[in-house]
Amino acid sequence: MSDEREVPPLPTFHSNVPLPPKLEVKGNLSNNWKRWRQLWDSFEIVSRTKDQSGKYRVATFITCVGPDALDIYNGLPFENEEAKTNMDTILNLMERHCLGETNVIYERYIYLLY
Questions:
Q1: How far apart are CA 97 and CA 91, in angstroms?
Q2: Which domain of life does the protein's organism represent (predicted)?
Q3: Would you say 44 and 113 are in contact if contact means Cβ atoms under 8 Å apart?
Q4: Whose CA is closest to 40, among 110, 84, 100, 95?
Q5: CA-CA 20 to 30 A from 48: which of 20, 29, 55, 59?
Q6: What is the number of structural domains in the chain?
Q7: In a domain, 86, yes or no
């Protein structure tokens, strides 16, 4: 009696596509995040990571962001364990952390000064 389980195919990863660089958390985190997010979104499309499971995408994300940004990820306010495998949730929480809230009055004041 043979145990013939269907083995899922390995994810297709194009090794000639470089990983995005780590997210720089020093300096202007808002600008660094915007640039990194643009690279991440493109990387996910080109490498077909976007077509993979949530766990695979999260593992790739954690590999790419680097140790400093991993500390941010580990401190995100996830609602439950399932949210930790949802890339949309992770990206939204990271974005909220990195961009913060905009003080509209202050931003208008600075704009008028210059």
A1: 10
A2: Eukaryota
A3: no
A4: 95
A5: 29
A6: 1
A7: yes
Distances from the Cα of 68 to the Cαs of 12, 29, 65, 77, 106, in angstroms? 28, 12, 8, 17, 29
pLDDT in tens, the chain (114 residues): 555 666 556 555 556 888 999 999 999 999 999 999 999 999 999 999 999 999 999 999 999 999 999 999 999 999 999 999 999 999 999 999 999 866 667 667 767 777
Tokens describing residue 100: 């913060």
> 12 in a domain, yes or no?
no
In a domain, 7, yes or no: no
